[in-house]
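Predict structure. Chain length: 41.
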Amino acid sequence: GSAQPRNSIYLNSIAVGLERFGKNIIVGCMDSSLHCYTTKV
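Prediction complete.
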C-alpha cells in the first residue's frame, strides 16, 4: 500500500476526456457534462 492517502471521484457518466490546467483537472463525460477538480491542498 501507499503511505499517502488516495483520492477518488465518482462520475454520473463514462469519462471520455481528461485535461490538466495548472492545478485543475477537467473531466469531460459522455453525457456532455464537464467536471472541474482542483489539486490544491
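Summary: Residues 1-41 form one domain.
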